[in-house]
C-alpha cells in the first residue's frame, strides 16, 4: 500500500523509470489512478517532426494503457494536439480500458481535423466520442468532462450523469438538441463552457440545472439564440455575433461580460434586454 501510494504520486516519467527498476513498482503501475499523457509528461521532444511526435506519443501511451488493468482510474487526460493522422482505434481502445465506473475526470485534446479520402472524395476526419461508455455506470461517477476537437452525439439512452459538475467543450461537433439532451441528464452541473462549437444554433439551458453558476459561450459562429432558465446562474460570459439572448430565469446573475461583433450599441442592448435580470 505504501509503494502504491508513492507510485501514484510520481509523475508519469518518474513512474515509468521506477517501473523499469522495481518489480514491486511494476505491479503498482497497472493500477495507477491518474493518467495524464502529453509531450511534457512523457518526456518527448517537442522539436521533432509531427510524424515522429505522433509515432512516439501513440506508442508510449498505448504501451502504458495496454498494461493498465483499468481498475481504479480517476483521471484520464490525453493531449494529442501535436499529432497528425491518428488512428482512432487507439483512442477507442484506451477509453474502453480507462473509462469505467469510478472515473472522475476525462479530458481529451485532439489534433485539428484532418482530410481523408474515401472513394476519391475528401472527408473531414473527426473523432466520434463513444457516448455509450458513459452509459455503463461510468456516467454516475464522472465529475469533469473536457472535449476538444471531437464529435459528441448524445442520445436519450445516455443515462443520468448525476455527478457531472463541469462540462467544457472546444471545437466540438454537437447540435443544440444534442446538447439539450446532455444537459437534461446532468442535474449537478455547476460550470458550462462552450468555445467554437459551430453546430450549435440554439442553446437552451433547462431549469432543472439548479446548481449551474457559470456559463461561458464564445465564438460559436452559427449561434442565434441563447436562452437560460437556470435559476441560480451568477456569471455569464459571451463572445460572438449577438443574436437573441434571454437570461430571464437567471435571477441571481451578478457578473455579465459580453464581447459582441458588429454590434454598435451593446450598452443599449444590455439595458433593454439584460439589465433587468442582473
From TrEMBL:
SUPFAM superfamilies, A to Z: L domain-like
Any Pfam family: LRR_At1g61320_AtMIF1
Gene3D superfamilies: Ribonuclease Inhibitor (3.80.10.10)
Domain At1g61320/AtMIF1 LRR, chain residue ranges per copy: 64-278
Classification via InterPro entries: At1g61320/At1g61330-like, LRR_At1g61320_AtMIF1, LRR_dom_sf
Signal peptide: none
Domain of life: Eukaryota
Protein name, entry field: At1g61320/AtMIF1 LRR domain-containing protein
The organism of origin for this protein: Aegilops tauschii subsp. strangulata (Goatgrass)
Amino acid at each position: 500500500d505504501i509503494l502504491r501510494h508513492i507510485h501514484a504520486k510520481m509523475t508519469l516519467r518518474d513512474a515509468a523509470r521506477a517501473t523499469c527498476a522495481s518489480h514491486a513498482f511494476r505491479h503498482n503501475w497497472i493500477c495507477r489512478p491518474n493518467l495524464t499523457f502529453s509531450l511534457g509528461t512523457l518526456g518527448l521532444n517537442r522539436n521533432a517532426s509531427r510524424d515522429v511526435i505522433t509515432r512516439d506519443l501513440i506508442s508510449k501511451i498505448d504501451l502504458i494503457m495496454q498494461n493498465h488493468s483499468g481498475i481504479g482510474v480517476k483521471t484520464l487526460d490525453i493531449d494529442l494536439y501535436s499529432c497528425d493522422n491518428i488512428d482512432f482505434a487507439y483512442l477507442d481502445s484506451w477509453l474502453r480500458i480507462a473509462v469505467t465506473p469510478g472515473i472522475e475526470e476525462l479530458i481529451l485534446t485532439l489534433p485539428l481535423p484532418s482530410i481523408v479520402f474515401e472513394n476519391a472524395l475528401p472527408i473531414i476526419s473527426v473523432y466520434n466520442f463513444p457516448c455509450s461508455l458513459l452509459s455503463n455506470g461510468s456516467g454516475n461517477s464522472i465529475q469533469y468532462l473536457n472535449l476538444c476537437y471531437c464529435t459528441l452525439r448524445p442520445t436519450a439512452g445516455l443515462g443520468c450523469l448525476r455527478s457531472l459538475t463541469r462540462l467544457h467543450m472546444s471545437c466540438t461537433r454537437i447540435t443544440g438538441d444534442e446538447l439539450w439532451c446532455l444537459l437534461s441528464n446532468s442535474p449537478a452541473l455547476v460550470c458550462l463552457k462552450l468555445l467554437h462549437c459551430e453546430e450549435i444554433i440554439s442553446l437552451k439551458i433547462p431549469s432543472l440545472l439548479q446548481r449551474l453558476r457559470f456559463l461561458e459561450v464564445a465564438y460559436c459562429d452559427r449561434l442565434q439564440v441563447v436562452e437560460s432558465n437556470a435559476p441560480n446562474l451568477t456569471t455569464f460570459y459571451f463572445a460572438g455575433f449577438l443574436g437573441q439572448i434571454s437570461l430571464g430565469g437567471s435571477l441571481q446573475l451578478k457578473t455579465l461580460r459580453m464581447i459582441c461583433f458588429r454590434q454598435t450599441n451593446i450598452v443599449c442592448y444590455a439595458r433593454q434586454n439584460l439589465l433587468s435580470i442582473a
